[in-house]
Amino acid sequence: MSFSLSQQNDTIIALATAQGVGAIAVIRLSGKEAISLTNQVFFGKNLKKQESHTIHFGTIRDGDKIIDEVLVSLFIAPKSFTKENVVEISTHGSSYIINQVLKLFIRKGARPAKPGEFTQRAFLNGQFDLAQAEAVADLIHADSETSHQAALSQMRGGFSSEIQELRARLIHFASMIELELDFGEEDVEFASREELRTLVERLLRVVEELILSFDLGNVIKNGVPTVIAGKPNAGKSTLLNALLNEEKAIVSEIAGTTRDFIEDEINIGGVIFRFIDTAGLRETTDTIEAIGVSRTQEKMKTASLILYLFDLGDTDLVEINRDVNKLENQGVPFLKVANKIDKANSLLVNELKEKHPDTIFISAGQKDNLEELKARILVLVNLDKFRTGNTVVTNVRHYDSLVKTRESLLDILSGLDNEVTNDFVAMDIRRSLHFLGEITGEITTDDLLENIFRNFCIGK
Ligand SMILES: Nc1nc2c(ncn2[C@@H]2O[C@H](COP(=O)(O)OP(=O)(O)OP(=O)(O)O)[C@@H](O)[C@H]2O)c(=O)[nH]1
Ligand SMILES: [Mg+2]
Predict the structure, then answer these.
(1) CATH class of the domain comprising 137-217+395-441
(2) Ligand 1 — pocket residues by CB below 6 A?
(3) pTM, rounded to two decimals
(4) Would you give the DSSP letter of residue 6?
(5) Intervals of CATH 3.30.1360.120 along the chain
(6) Cα(264) to centroid of ligand 1, in Å?
(7) Of the ranges 206-215, 329-338, 359-368, which one carries the lowest mean pLDDT score?
């Protein structure tokens, strides 16, 4: 699949709403002939004589046969999503009607759109930059408040504008240094090395912050990985089920019930958490259980958050101290969650309140105090930084380009430190410009575009 310019001249068509039966379906056309093609099969007003951003009632007919009564919305170039002529036909939402309409248009000369082709045309026609186009895809797939906000802010400009501005200033330096190169032997300096260093250091700070935000961005997109860990029978699976409100994991009074990990997503306060129920941690001679235990330990290392769960009726302070110590050394944020408060001995509860006042007491079995637990989880992951509209990188492609940008910026700095010749500095600047340009789409290749838009759905 390649995107040559000639293809932009044809008129594409696709179902814009979801597949399946619905009250209404919207079929979208984009391209030079979008309006004239529609006019051939639409019976009502002459669409060619209507203004942009108007809606018209009529019928779609295949010869004498009426396919449906429809509403047609007109967007005349360049005042449309793709900046081409766009027609949106709202039909009744039956798959029979949709297929008849699509077939009719294809017979008349429209071409079925490829995945993401509408958005790609919008990009190619300068509607937005590449990072914004990718955000359209993220927005469609966003399923929580936070991922929605990340995509929305990116689509509306996000970090692209900041990068574009800094890149423009770097271009200025590049051209100054190229100019110095032109003067060859003469010892002139158009670009102040100190100013260049200041700009590069500033760029580096921005780039590094964006790189750091990727972890957070990833978490927002895929859910905060949260491991429930503890001894066998602590009630980990019971807690997972209670949080999910379904009997997902098997619960039993036999220690060692869960052997593989079980995970599911839970939305807490607009943030998706990926809860992972694990095999209880203990020394075991059972081979399968032992594999489960080592998997638990792996999962704990990569978690963003650990719920350390223990049974108040089956644990003493010595053991809790030892576990807490281990967890502190691991460096992953964790919460101390004391379970089975419904049958706890008050001695241990009092000891805990004194020695570990941040313990949360719950009963997973009776679903007691789970709201408090959720509130504490939210506080611990602290996504406020994100909510205030800070820029978050969620896209692997941007992340890759940012990492490469960082390397080449560091090369510029070490070049300046070592007083390398102008041509080397110029080369490193050009490399930085290239990687920065990759993010916003000022530098693209066919392969890159193809890759990005392939991940879109058809009709988007
Ligand atoms: N009384 C009481 N019993 C509970 C509570 N939570 C869990 N249990 C019981 O504790 C037993 C063990 O629960 P599980 O959820 O299977 O424990 P687990 O930590 O997943 O155990 P493994 O999978 O073996 O590691 C079951 O009999 C549960 O019904 C609670 O809050 N109160
Ligand atoms: Mg279990």
Answers:
(1) mainly alpha
(2) 232-238, 251-253, 255-258, 279-280, 339-340, 342-343, 363-366
(3) 0.57
(4) G
(5) 12-127
(6) 18
(7) 206-215
